[in-house]
Amino acid sequence: MNKEIKKIGVLTSGGDAPGMNAAIRAVVRTGIYFGLDVFGIRRGFQGLIEEDIFQMDSRSVANIIQRGGTMLKTARCKEFYEYEGRKKAYEVLKKKGIDGLVIIGGDGSFRGAVNFSQEFDIPCIGIAGTIDKDIQGTDFTIGFDTAVNTAVEAIDKIRDTMEAHDRIFIIEVMGRDAGYIALHSGIATGAENILIPERKTDMNSIILSLQEKERRKKLVNLIVVAEGDDFGGANEVSKFVKENIPAAEVRVCILGHIQRGGAPSCMDRLIASRMGYQAVESLLKGRYNVFVGILNNKMNYIPLENAVKNKGKVSEEWLKIIKILAT
Ligand code: F6P
Q1: What is the pLDDT of residue 3?
Q2: Is residue 132 annotated as a catalytic residue, yes or no?
Q3: Is the pLDDT of residue 2 over 50?
Q4: 109 and 230 housed in the same domain
Q5: Atom of ligand 1 nearest to the CA of 176
Q6: Beta carbon of 174 within 6 Å of any ligand 1 atom
Q7: Atom 3 in ligand 1: residue holding the nearest Cα
Q8: Ligand 1, from 109, 260, 309, 311: best to mutate by most atoms within 8 Å of Cβ?
Q9: CB atoms near residue 81 (< 10 Å)
Q10: Are residues 20 and 128 in the same domain?
Q11: What is the largest CA-CA distance in the chain?
Q12: In this structure, which residue's CA is closest to atom 14 in ligand 1?
C-alpha cells in the first residue's frame, strides 16, 4: 500500500500523558506545512466511531504546548476491539475523505490499530505516549519525564515529614505493568526500597532490614512501590510491615492521578514535538503502520504489531546501584 495522502486525522487514545498536546500541535503544524488538511478526532477511537471530528488549523493548536491533558480528550474504546466498531470507524474516515491516521497513545492503542490497519486501506502511524514508559523499542514515551518529576517532588516533601517523625513511609506510584516510575523516582529520592513488577518482591528480607534498624533505634525508611508490584501495592506492604514490626509508625501515600496531570516538562515537550513532526513526515514518505519512538537518540519506527510491553527489562546496573546507595 503506497498512496498519496492529502487529509490526515489525529487522535489521542488510552491514558492521557503530559506532552500529548505538544504532539498534537506538532502533527497539526507539520501537516499544514506539507499542504495537508488536518482533522482533530475527539475522545480517541470512540470519537472516531461517533464522528466527533473537526478540521484544525495552525491557530487551533496555539497556546497548548505548555498544557497537560489532551485538548482532543481521550478514551479507552472497547467497541474498537470488535470488527464492527472498526468498520464503523473506517466508514467515517471514508466519508470525511481522511486517508491517514495519527494515533498518540500507548501499546494498547497501537494493538487496537493493528487489526484496523490490516483490515482497511487507511495508513496509520503511532506516537508513543504514556507515563508508564512501558513500550519496547523506545527509550522515551511522552509523559514519563513529567510524571517522574511530579513523583519526585511529592516524595521529597513526604521525606521531610517522614524524617521529622521517624516514620516508615510507603509511597505508591503509578505503573500497572511496569516499574519505571517507581524505579526512577525511588532512586532520585534515595528510597531504601523500590518494589517493581519486574522483580519478585522479597518482603521478608525488607522486614529483616527494618528489624535491624529498629535495634539501632532508627526506624526511618522510605519504600516506593509501583502499583503493579506482585506483593499487592502500598496498602498490602503497610499491613505486612505493621504485622511484623508492631512498634513501627507506618504511613501510606498513594500518589495516583496527580502523576498524570500538570504542565509537561521541557523533555516531554521536546520529544513530543520531534515525534509529531517525524510521524507526519514518515506517513508522507510511505512508511506507515508503525509507531514512532526514539532509541539511542535516533528515530525508531516499530511495526504496530510489535508494540509490546517493555516487561522484565530493568537494567542489572540500576538494581545493583539501588542496593549499594540505599544502605
Ligand atoms: O496511563 C497509564 C496509567 O496511568 C497506569 O499507570 C495506571 O494504572 C492507569 O493508567 C490508570 O488508568 P485510569 O486512569 O483509567 O484509572
Answers
A1: 64
A2: yes
A3: no
A4: no
A5: 8
A6: yes
A7: 15
A8: 260
A9: 14
A10: yes
A11: 72
A12: 15
pLDDT interval class at 247 (50, 70, 90)? very high
Average pLDDT, rounded, for the chain: 95
Q: 3-state secondary structure string, the chain?
A: CCCCCCEEEEEECCCCCCCHHHHHHHHHHHHHHCCCEEEEECCHHHHHHCCCEEEECHHHHCCCCCCCCCCCCCCCCCHHHCHHHHHHHHHHHHHHCCCEEEEEECHHHHHHHHHHHHHCCCCEEEEEECCCCCECCCCCCECHHHHHHHHHHHHHHHHHHHHHHCCEEEEEECCCCCCHHHHHHHHHCCCCEEECCCCCCCHHHHHHHHHHHHHCCCCCEEEEEECCCCCCCHHHHHHHHHHHCCCCCEEEEECHHHHHCCCCCHHHHHHHHHHHHHHHHHHHCCCCCEEEEEECCEEEEEEHHHCCECCCCCCHHHHHHHHHHCC
Residue 323 lies in a domain: no
Pocket test for ligand 1, best of 43, 109, 150, 174 (most atoms within 8 A of CB): 174
CB 160 within 8 A of CB 211: no
What percent of the chain is predicted at pLDDT more than 90?
88
| pLDDT over threshold 90, residue 61 | yes
Q: Is the CB of 132 under 6 A from ligand 1?
A: yes
| Residues spanned by the domain of 100 | 7-143+264-306
CATH number of the domain bearing residue 212: 3.40.50.460
The fraction of the chain above a pLDDT of 70, given in percent, is 98
312 falls within a domain: no
- Look at 2 and 295; give whichever has higher pLDDT: 295
Please check whether residues 134 and 240 belong to one and the same domain.
no
Name the catalytic one among 132, 134, 145, 229: 132
- pLDDT tens digits, residue range 179-221? 999 999 999 999 999 999 999 999 999 999 999 999 988 899 9
